Structures are given as C-alpha cells and as structure tokens.
Automatic annotation (TrEMBL):
Record localization: Cytoplasm
Similarity field: Belongs to the thiolase-like superfamily. FabH family.
Gene (name only): fabH
Catalytic activity: malonyl-[ACP] + acetyl-CoA + H(+) = 3-oxobutanoyl-[ACP] + CO2 + CoA
Pathway field: Lipid metabolism; fatty acid biosynthesis
Domain notes: The last Arg residue of the ACP-binding site is essential for the weak association between ACP/AcpP and FabH.
SUPFAM superfamilies: Thiolase-like
Native source species: Candidatus Merdimorpha stercoravium
Function: Catalyzes the condensation reaction of fatty acid synthesis by the addition to an acyl acceptor of two carbons from malonyl-ACP. Catalyzes the first condensation reaction which initiates fatty acid synthesis and may therefore play a role in governing the total rate of fatty acid production. Possesses both acetoacetyl-ACP synthase and acetyl transacylase activities. Its substrate specificity determines the biosynthesis of branched-chain and/or straight-chain of fatty acids.
Occurrences of domain Beta-ketoacyl-[acyl-carrier-protein] synthase III N-terminal (ranges): 110-188
EC number: 2.3.1.180
Presence of keyword Transmembrane: no
Stated name of the protein: Beta-ketoacyl-[acyl-carrier-protein] synthase III
Amino acid sequence: MEKIKAAISAVGGFVPDYILTNEEISRRVDTSDEWITTRTGIKERRILTDPDLGTSHLCIRAAEDLLRKSACDPATIDGVLVCTITPDYPVANTAAYVASRIGAANAFAMDLVAACSGFISALYTAANFVESGRCRKVLVIGGDKMSTIIDPMDRATCILFGDGAAAVLVEPSRNGYGIEHTYLRCDGTGREFLRIDVGGSINPPTVENTAFGGQFVHQDGRSVYRYAVTNMCEASQNVLNACGLDASQIDYLLPHQANRRIIESVTEHLGLPKEKVLVNIERYGNTTDGTLPLLLWDFEKTLKKGNKLLLTTFGGGFTWGSMYLTWDY
C-alpha cells in the first residue's frame, strides 16, 4: 500500500478593517512610533472592534476565503481544527460553530490550545489524520481576537498584538510534495513567564481579581525572548538534520511573528539571508495562532510548487516547534 503524504492544498485568510497604528497607541500610553518600531518591528495591527463578534468570526471569514478560492465543497471536509487562545466561550467548542457556519456538515470539530505554537501543532495533527487514511480533507484554522485579552494601557503588551485568522486545507499530496517532518516540544515550567492569571480553574474571575487586570496577558519579555530564540533555533536545526538538509537549501523560513528582534536572531543563527525570510509583522503584529497561516496567505503568490519551507514557532506554556514541508501547488 502506497504511503499517503499530507499536503497543504489551499489557503485563505482574513484580517479586520480597522488599523491600529503606533501613533494611536502613543496617544494613550507613554511610547512612540520610533520606540515601538525599533524594538518590535511593528507599525500597525488589525483590530476587530465589534464587541459582538469573536474569534469565530475571524475563522469563518478565513475559511470562507479558502473555500471560495479552492472551490472545495464544505460537505466533503472530514474535520475542522481551530487553534486559538481566545475562544468565543470557555465552554462551547469554537470549531463546531465554525464548521456549522461554513457548511461542513459531515466534519468532526476540535479546538486546539498551544498558544503561539497552535498552528504547527494543529497542522501536524491534521497531517496525521490524513496520512492514516482516515480523513481526506482536514481544515486547519489559526485565529485569535487578541484585543480582548490585552490591557490597552499596558505598554509592554498593547503594542504587540493584533487580531486575525487564516486557514489551510490539508489533503493527500497531488504532486509528491507535502509535510515532511515535524518537531514539537514543551516545558511547563515556563508558564510563569507568559500567562493570564485569571479565568481558569485555579483562579476563576471575580470582581476583585479582574479589577487589577488579572484577565489580561502578562509576560516577562526578556525571559520569553531568550527561550524563544534558543528553542526555535534548536527545533529548526533538529528538523533540518532529520531531513538531511542544510539551511542554505531552504527556500523560505516562516518564523512566528512575535517580535522582529526574535525573527532576526533566529535568521542569523540559521545563517539565512533576509530575502529568504517571510515577514509581515509590521502590518499585523502578533496574531498568536494566526501568524504562520497569515504568512502563507500573504505570500501565497510568492510560493512555487516544490519550494522548501521551514516553519518555526514558540508560545506560552512554554511550547515550541518547527516543521519542514514542500509546497504542493
């Protein structure tokens, strides 16, 4: 029996219309466009301003874009995976709602939580479903409405995050290309450095603990930077070694869009020229689960069949990983 190789066969994306610029942020907190740009590489980010719309709206719009472009019949989709840290509700599966709204009536649906590493984790999961022969089409959507969990007055975080989502369809490879190797790891001792204190089973929300901003993201930026660079580089090198590749053979590096300095450090460590690194952080900021699929969506016309892509990411938990794939269309 011939081994099935899973591949990305279509991409879709969506970002809200509202653009939050550095200048606007600098009018409410002590910062400036120059300060933000120099330290993060971010010039603007998109914000879903309608309070009645959540992450599902972003994911639905991204999925609809994919379906429209690919002419995929949603009824043929076997599974829908939504990776997010900002579900519509703590209970009520976001993926199930998305599946119903896009017409994926015959699909199972799962939410997957791995912070900024969610997309690679979900893509790896989808690939395993397809390669097992149990599924033919799995839709993977990475999206977050980060503006709902960021304190707009916290200079350390309000400059970093934006809202957005993108989707990929995973199917058996048409051309022999596809997902070649994945490396995923975690370190639970790192959760103190990047977290939301309030809202879980240990510290349910109360009037008292939300009054002090416990429901918002808090991070130790220096520790996160150090862990991110070290582990993204280690994971990427592990994948390259496993595939018998040198970094120079990679056509494009797709790094998690958390911070321009992290991206530059990983790029330098791997010895890649800047023209081989896909970056859009200046326009979207850190969309958490959305960063990597939004890169694929943004640069879809740049990618050519057979291109060698190295994806790498790092997120709260800590979680991290890298994936090597060859572009199938």
